[in-house]
Amino acid sequence: MLETNPYMMVGERLCMDFINTVSWRESADKRRDWFTSYVKLVDWSIHAEVLTASQAQNLLIEAGENPSQAEETLKQAVELREVMYRIFKSISKKTSPNEQDLAHFNKSVSHFYRSLQVIQDEDQFTLKFKQTEKTLDTMLPPILQSAVDLLVSKSELERVKQCEGDPCGWLFFDTSRNRSRRWCSMADCGNRAKVRRYYQKEK
Asked: Domains of the chain (ranges plus CATH)?
């Protein structure tokens, strides 16, 4: 969670990076939420390549015309993010997610999956969410899809981990061959742990 880069993307999956939009997640003093406004949500979505620049521009115009709806969308995004965090944190700790969190997640699935369509792309068919330029929550379905894909894949689900840096709290998908990754980033929490061990050894 390098504070100099508010859009540090180390989760290796879209849903993980979405969850990690809170710096120092498990610290009461340092915790900082990146989504302080709908504009910030859109800005992050561009960086995450969920939205194009033109889509983002249209959404911001719509948000300006419907500020209360934009605020409700932001609230919805944050609630979904926190539910996903608790679910995947439980999985990283090899425990069962809370039933209420799963129920909330499934409610989002039921809502957004109504816009799924079969799209033909040259010689193959794919499932894609129908997106419109003025739907303020249009960035959420792809993020939800990323989480669903991960949840239903047992082999991949076993690679979900939480950074061992305290009080980082970030989650990531371990892509290392021997599943040995321990930190959100070696340049951040990994290096901090190395320095801490060094000083403890010197003492």
From this structure: 14-202 (1.10.3300.10)
For the segment 59-115, what is each residue's pLDDT rounded down to a tens digit?
999 999 999 999 999 999 999 999 999 999 999 999 999 999 999 999 999 988 887
Q: What is the pTM (predicted TM-score) of this model?
A: 0.86
Helix (H) or strand (E) holding 121: strand 116-121
Residues 6+ apart with CB under 8 A from 159: 173, 174, 175, 179
Could you identify the residue written with the tokens 């996903």?
A: 84
Given the structure tokens 């894609």, which residue do they identify? 128
C-alpha to C-alpha distance for 13 and 146, rounded to whole angstroms:
7
> In this structure, what token pair is assigned to residue 40?
């910030």
**Among 164, 142, 115, which Cα is nearest to 55's?**
142
